[in-house]
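For the sake of clarity, the format in which proteins appear in this thesis is described at this point. The fold follows as a row of integers, each naming the local backbone shape at the matching residue. One such record is shown here in full, so that the layout can be seen directly:
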Amino acid sequence: METQTYWELLINRSGSRFFLLAALAQRPMHGYQLAKVIEEATSACCTPSAAMIYPALRELVEGGYITCEIERTGSRERKVCTLTPKGRQVYETA
């Protein structure tokens, strides 16, 4: 608890899940949109990377808090994530 690394890891782990749920409570989004919304919500204090977002999204999917569907735009594919009722309840509790 005495190192900056400890606190950064703790904040990134717990805060990232909260911010992801908060962003998805607004509307369904894909990873890049989520990163931008979180960055704006935190006044650029938290600039999430793909390495932070995608493992957290996977954990939220596995827990049944969000679902992700493939959206195709031309040759691009994106996973668009949506809160489930369980995810909305968890967000409201948080």
The chain has four helices and three strands. The chain has a mean pLDDT of 87. The longest strand covers residues 66-73. Residues 36 and 58 are 19 Å apart (CA to CA).
